[in-house]
């Protein structure tokens, strides 16, 4: 019924042909999407004419229908983005957006109705199948605005209110289905003054925000080659090297104002200044960070609690590699485009996606700091010597990608199974702590402490969520029975209505002495008590006549009316109550998101150390000895990638 109402409303406001069937995909004008038959065209009654005729001639888009004026206003705020405009069970694109989407997505381009005297080019995709289309567009480098119906079509008078609630760009996606789970997705911003470059980059799906400054074009290009940002924002007034390969997006220079950026960052991180992050003197990088933060806020339109600190990376900490060196070393990219025959492809034995991403970062940013490297080597050797490798990796298989789950929790876009995955990780944390504490290895002990104690939160989540939640929360069934008394009562009403009716029928037969009395329900009149005309003399005085049918009368009582009111709204109210309870779950998790992020980072490093230990043990690798003297000496060297692709033994060099 709601779908039919939406289509009828659209026909009034948009001049579209309608049908009462559930729509399928695009169909030619005047043809039903459901059955392919001609549709009847509904013309608006005189009493339902829109206020468009009363608009002054100077009103923007005054010559268009109310629906198209709504679209143009949303489009004006995002002129460079593909606008997915919600209309019932479809997201529609109009005009140039429709032409472009039809070409990129291979969907049908059609024309429906008229606005301002011209046919309206349209293309659409079903709401339930949106994600694959978004994924394809993002891979092609497109940016998208999602304009949703924020009003209820069933209760709205006139045009349903719509608003852009979500913006997706290549560098700001967080949806699991749109991401490469074993690769970081970086969004970067860049400005330059007097030959020095300020760079800021963030991983929205992982909650990292990093600053860096470079004093030459060569150093900058090497850093960009390492990051390979999915999206690069640049100061349009800055003098920069050739960045065409990154398809940079120009931003106005006032977005890169250092003082305004520092104020914005201080306010965002709720600190008096930025000295605690060690970046107060990096004015160019801070300018880029301010521009980056502005862009993230524009696209996400929500709080960002998983960004809790700024990190500073210095080129002095790592071994410098330019773009050509990285390409020739084939760290994680082969000429074929695959990762199989690369260093990462051989070394990546990580169990979790976040472990694989951390390993990739380690490979691309080799450290110079011997103390950190020796701590890692010691941890790897300890895992091998104490035979703790496989038990630890078995535990890791139940962790999942908590890093990205926490980002979606912070953005309040996590799905029920994300929450269940996080709960599973917290339930396993004590077992990690127990195993790591027994190893008596400094770095592993530190990671054990970093995991923290989340037993109370895990127990609360166990009580709140069902064992196997559904994919989506909209249909309910996420919150466990017994967690909330009000929800349990509403569910009881909606699922046990038949039992109540049987009990009521039995009681009323006994009280009235009418053996043929029947309690039933129909969709038009609701619940009723039916008594044949031959028994009319026995009808109690408190029965109220509801309907007359052939050979019988139908009645309602106060008890039955009260039950009807409760049961007919119980399903809707239970979904609303469950939604409110899920918001409480989000509130609880967001309040602890920083501690949970620390635990997630510990899980990732444990995974990487265990993966390297597994590779070292299985492939018989030797631990290198670090020296404070410059130089490198290799004895009986072996090439791990060549060994992996050759069937013959690889001779040492």
Question: Which keywords apply here?
Answer:
disordered N terminus; 21 helices; 653 residues; alpha+beta; globular; 6-stranded mixed β-sheet
Describe, in plain words, how this protein is organized in 3D:
The structure is a single chain. The chain is of the alpha+beta class and about 650 residues long. It contains 21 helices and 18 strands. It has helices at about 1-15, 65-75, 95-105, 130-140, 215-225, 260-270, 285-300, 325-330, 345, 355-365, 370-385, 390-395, 400-410, 415-440, 440-450, 455-465, 485-495, 495-510, 560-590, 595-620, 640-645, and strands at about 15-20, 40, 80-85, 90-95, 110-115, 120-125, 145-150, 160-170, 185-195, 195-205, 210-215, 230-235, 250, 310, 520, 525-530, 545-550, 550-555. Strands 5-6-4-3-7-8 form a six-stranded mixed beta sheet, with helices on both faces. Strands 13-12-9-10-11-14 form a six-stranded mixed beta sheet. It has a four-stranded antiparallel beta sheet with strand order 15-16-18-17. Helix 6 (about 260-270) packs across helix 7 and helix 12 (about 390-395) packs across helix 20. The longest helix is centred in the last third of the chain and has 34 residues, at about 560-590. The chain is globular. It starts with a helix and ends in an 8-residue tail after the last helix.
């Amino acid at each position: 019924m709601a779908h039919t109402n939406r289509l009828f409303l659209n026909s009034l406001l948009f001049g579209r042909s309608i049908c009462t069937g559930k729509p399928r995909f695009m169909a030619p004008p005047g043809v039903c999407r459901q059955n392919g038959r001609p549709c009847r065209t509904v013309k608006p009654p005189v009493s339902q004419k829109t206020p468009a005729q009363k608009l002054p001639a100077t009103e923007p888009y005054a010559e268009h229908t109310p629906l198209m004026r709504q679209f143009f206003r949303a489009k004006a705020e995002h002129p460079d983005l593909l606008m997915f405009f919600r209309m019932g069970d479809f997201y529609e694109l109009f005009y140039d957006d429709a032409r472009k989407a039809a070409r990129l997505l291979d969907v049908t381009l059609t024309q429906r109705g008229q606005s301002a005297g011209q046919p309206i080019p349209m293309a659409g995709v079903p709401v339930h199948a949106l994600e694959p289309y978004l994924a394809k567009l993002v891979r092609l480098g497109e940016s998208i605005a999602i304009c949703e119906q924020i009003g209820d079509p069933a209760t709205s008078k006139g045009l349903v209110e719509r608003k852009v609630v979500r913006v997706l760009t290549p560098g700001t996606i967080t949806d699991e289905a749109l991401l490469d789970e074993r690769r970081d997705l970086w969004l970067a911003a860049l400005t330059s003054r007097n030959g020095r470059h300020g760079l800021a980059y963030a991983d929205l799906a992982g909650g990292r925000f990093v600053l860096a400054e470079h004093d030459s074009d060569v150093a900058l290009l090497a850093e960009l080659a390492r990051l390979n940002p999915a999206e690069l924002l640049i100061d349009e007034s800055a003098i920069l090297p050739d960045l065409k390969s990154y398809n940079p997006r120009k931003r106005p220079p006032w977005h890169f104002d250092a003082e305004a950026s520092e104020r914005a960052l201080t306010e965002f991180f709720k600190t008096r200044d930025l000295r605690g992050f060690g970046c107060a003197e990096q004015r160019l990088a801070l300018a880029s960070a301010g521009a980056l933060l502005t862009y993230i806020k524009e696209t996400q339109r929500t709080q960002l609690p998983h960004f809790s600190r700024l990190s500073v990376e210095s080129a002095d900490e790592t071994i410098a590699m330019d773009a050509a060196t990285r390409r020739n070393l084939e760290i994680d990219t082969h000429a074929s485009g695959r990762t199989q025959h690369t260093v990462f492809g051989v070394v990546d034995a990580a169990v979790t996606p976040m472990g694989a991403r951390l390993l990739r970062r380690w490979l691309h940013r080799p450290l110079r700091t011997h103390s950190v490297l020796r701590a890692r080597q010691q941890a790897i050797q300890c895992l091998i010597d104490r035979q703790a490798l496989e038990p630890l990796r078995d535990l890791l298989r139940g962790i999942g990608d908590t890093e990205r789950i926490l980002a979606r929790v912070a953005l309040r876009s996590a799905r029920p199974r994300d929450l269940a995955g996080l709960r599973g990780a917290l339930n396993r944390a004590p077992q990690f702590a127990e195993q790591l504490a027994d190893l008596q290895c400094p770095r592993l002990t530190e990671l054990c402490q970093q995991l923290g104690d989340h037993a109370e939160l895990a127990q609360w989540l166990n009580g709140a969520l069902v064992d196997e939640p559904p994919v989506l929360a909209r249909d309910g069934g996420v919150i466990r029975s017994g967690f909330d008394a009000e929800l349990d009562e509403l569910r009881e009403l909606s699922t046990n209505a038949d039992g109540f009716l049987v009990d009521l029928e039995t009681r009323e037969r006994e009280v009235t002495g009418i053996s043929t009395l029947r309690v039933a329900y129909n969709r038009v009149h609701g619940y009723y008590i039916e008594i044949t005309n031959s028994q009319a003399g026995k009808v109690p005085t408190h029965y109220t006549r509801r309907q007359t049918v052939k050979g019988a009368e139908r009645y309602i009582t106060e008890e039955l009316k009260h039950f009807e009111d409760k049961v007919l709204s119980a399903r809707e109210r239970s979904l609303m109550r469950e939604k409110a309870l899920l918001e409480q779950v989000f509130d609880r998790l967001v309040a602890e998101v920083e501690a949970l992020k620390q635990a997630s980072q510990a899980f990732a490093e444990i995974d990487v150390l265990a993966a390297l230990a597994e590779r070292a043990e299985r492939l018989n690798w030797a631990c290198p000895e670090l020296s404070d003297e410059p130089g490198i000496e290799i004895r009986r060297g072996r090439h791990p990638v060549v060994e992996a692709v050759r069937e013959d033994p690889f001779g040492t060099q």
